[in-house]
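New to this. Help decode both lines:
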Amino acid sequence: MVNTQNGESVPVAVIGLGLMGRSIAACLLAAGHRVTGVTDDMAASASTPQKIEQLLIEMSEEKLLREPAAGVMHRFQMTSNLKEIADSEIVFESVTEDLVLKRELLQSAERVVSSTCILASNTSALPVSLLQEGAIHPERILGIHWDEPAHVTRFMEIIPGGATSRESLDRITQIAPLWGKEPSTLRKEIRGFITNRISYAMFREACYLVDSGVCTVEDVDRSMRNDVGWWIPFAGPFRYMDLMGVEAYHRVMRDLLPDLSTEKEIPKLMRDVVESGGRGISNGRGFYQYTKEEANAWEARFMEFNYKIRRLTAEYADVLGKEKSSNDA
């Protein structure tokens, strides 16, 4: 049984050590866990320990780490042999968003860990029930949706599949605060979960406005930063409507909702970017263009912003994260 008070008593594993996997590993190490990182290419991953340690150094500077970063790294080991995760109590799979690959990895891990080990897939939208197909113990497979940077944000969604047990969900929900998270545990499975369903509705409408000639990409970003971006760290949409007056939103919805885009195809604006080879900041070509220096500067600013937002929201910890609505059972 997971000891939610002491991370050091809980050996865990992270399969996949890309950008997100490294960030998850740093978060778990900071919480006191012994972490085994699994990669399929030890040579290509040679710099991974140094990258994880750098994340821990940043956490230490932000006072999010109780001990020196160098002292934390002794709890990390990296391997390409799945058999070395046999003693793990929780396994976090964090590879490419590919159903077949994720399912195969979960089944491979299941063959070497104990029957009580929880298997958690870091997925952004895949139905967990599909990941459970063919599993020996599907009741201990669930989804955990992290956000990047996973070692900084308080975000986490815990998602059941059709066979996930209540005990498995409860175990992760109880230990998540140790990782610095304020988890949302879904009551039933739905593709895309909470934030991605809401976010992609917003992305679709943003593309629609530009494709329709209403405004530019810059106009959309400017408006969203200075409106939604102003209040969203403090209040979710329901709290915000309460603060502003629910009845006003009822009136606007009646007139506006029928006019919003319900297009099911990928918007032209996004197709054009991707089909022309744009990947975003990673290759300097997205909805905006970036030189190498500009890309590096934006990434550095984004990380700095994440730490500042964490500090800001911490000032309101007495009220934030304590939502209880009139519809709660």
In short: Residues 1-5 have pLDDT under 50 and may be disordered. Residues 202-289 form a domain with the N-(1-d-carboxylethyl)-l-norvaline Dehydrogenase; domain 2 fold (CATH 1.10.1040.10).
